UniProtKB/TrEMBL annotation:
Signal peptide: none annotated. The record marks K78 as: Lowers pKa of active site Tyr. This is Aldehyde oxidoreductase. Substrate binds at H111. Residues 13-270 form the NADP-dependent oxidoreductase domain. The active site is at Y52 (proton donor). Pfam families: Aldo_ket_red. InterPro entries: AKR, NAD(P)_OxRdtase_dom_sf, NADP_OxRdtase_dom. GO terms for molecular function: oxidoreductase activity. It comes from Secundilactobacillus silagincola.
Length: 282
């Protein structure tokens, strides 16, 4: 299985996303089973946020991991822009830790840019790392210009990862962002790695070329979409599934090695960008 190294921690390149989980109490058992299935298949990363269901996703994750050894997990959560100030951030992180049932998260991300001065947010993220409430911090929904601004701050280059939308139908980050992050040794976390319902290329799994490659590997279309994302160096994918079988399949996609012919077919269906595009955000 392919791996990604974040702040010195080597983790499997496919983790578990939790956006939209925890909202329906009738699905709680199934969703917890899905998290367990993903972890049993080899995942270590669980990505969540205070925004997801106003804390309900974190609460669900807390229930799912309460009997799992902490050193077998890599937990990521995120702070909302409205809470990303020196005045509010620690209280937000404390609430996230309480919902998760842990003393610290492995990575705490600034979910997207808000009105708080970037320097203030970053200094507080670094302080919370220093006091041990998170092992590392990073950012989300940052483009090249944002990262260049970040890197000018004293603590900016201490960022451990950047999380953005990236999938076969949304390849804008390949034009310059992935190269910038590789050059600066900043790992990339891909959210919505198999597409999203409200995205232009929402049904990537139905594309004939994707299906052809899937047939070659005796895999599902979703597995091929994930294998394509993590074929990029230092890219971690965090697909979300509330179905235990699908969660397991998602993680096992990390074992699929796409060939040059596979990649050519996928490029023909969804060409790489030839110019800088606005950052896709959901």
């Amino acid at each position: 299985m392919q791996t990604v190294t974040i702040a010195g921690n080597q983790v499997p390149a496919i983790g578990l996303g939790t956006w939209h989980m925890g909202d329906d109490p009738s699905l709680q058992t199934q969703e917890i089973n899905a998290i367990h299935a993903g972890l049993a298949a080899g995942a270590e990363v669980i990505d969540t946020a205070e925004m997801y269901g106003s804390g309900r996703a974190e609460t669900l994750v807390g229930k799912a991991i309460k009997d799992i050894p902490r050193d077998q997990l890599y937990l990521i959560s995120k702070v909302l822009p409205t809470n990303a100030s020196k005045q509010h951030m620690e209280r937000s992180l404390d609430a996230s830790l309480k919902r998760l049932g842990v003393d610290e998260v492995d990575l705490y991300l600034y979910h997207w840019r808000g009105t708080t001065p970037l320097a203030e947010t970053i200094d507080e993220l670094q302080r919370l790392t220093t006091v041990g409430k998170t092992k590392a911090w990073g950012i989300s929904n940052f483009d090249v210009s944002d990262l260049e601004e970040l890197w000018q701050l004293p603590n900016g280059p201490k960022a451990a990862a950047n999380e953005d939308l990236f999938n076969l139908g949304s390849r804008g980050v390949e034009y310059s962002l992935l190269d910038w992050q590789a050059k600066h040794e900043l790992p990339f976390i891909a959210y919505s790695p198999v597409g999203a319902p409200d995205q232009l290329n929402a049904h990537l799994d139905r594309n004939p070329n994707v299906l052809k490659v899937a047939q070659r590997h005796n895999a599902s279309a979703y597995q091929i979409l994930l294998a394509w994302v993590v074929s990029h160096q230092q890219v971690l994918a965090i697909p979300q599934s509330s179905n235990p079988d699908h969660a397991k399949e998602n993680v096992l996609a990390g074992d699929i090695q796409l060939t040059a012919d596979d990649l050519k077919l996928l490029d023909e269906a969804y060409p790489a960008p030839t110019e800088k595009l606005p950052l896709d955000v959901l």
